[in-house]
Amino acid sequence: MTELRVSWEHTFPDDGTKLVIHSNWVSNTPATQAYLEALIARVGQMDPAPHCVFEKRQAVPSRSLPPDLGTFTSAEFWQVAELLHLQATPSLAAARLVLVEGMRPAKAARQLNTSPQALTNTLRKIRTERATSSRLGRLPADRPPSEGTAPQEP
């Protein structure tokens, strides 16, 4: 996983007020990095240009994080959810944040207003189905399913 840190400071010429933003992102997806790089490019176009720092380094995951945090592709996640006939619920959306985006489970549960237990149950179902489906050949073991098989994200 990659840790991306973005910090910038901008003074507005109208009234001299300052905007300071510090953001840390931990992700294993190139899309997150591309998003932040595009955001930084846009910030650099502001007049006057703000001071901006962008750092990228290998993330050191906490020992308390699940081993599969952020290891699903979006298509794989939705394919497993479809195999399980899971309904669109806050706990399913939170599970996607954990398994695809790499968010910590507690933060995902809080952000989507679901109970940690409901999220834990959904994560358990999805992890079990992924392992079972890979063994039975319903999901490729080493490569994600094609994007065309995934339902639209909510």
UniProtKB/TrEMBL annotation:
<protein>
    <recommendedName>
        <fullName>HTH luxR-type domain-containing protein</fullName>
    </recommendedName>
</protein>
<dbReference type="InterPro" id="IPR053721">
    <property type="entry name" value="Fimbrial_Adhesin_Reg"/>
</dbReference>
<keyword id="KW-0804">Transcription</keyword>
<keyword id="KW-0805">Transcription regulation</keyword>
<feature type="region of interest" description="Disordered">
    <location>
        <begin position="125"/>
        <end position="154"/>
    </location>
</feature>
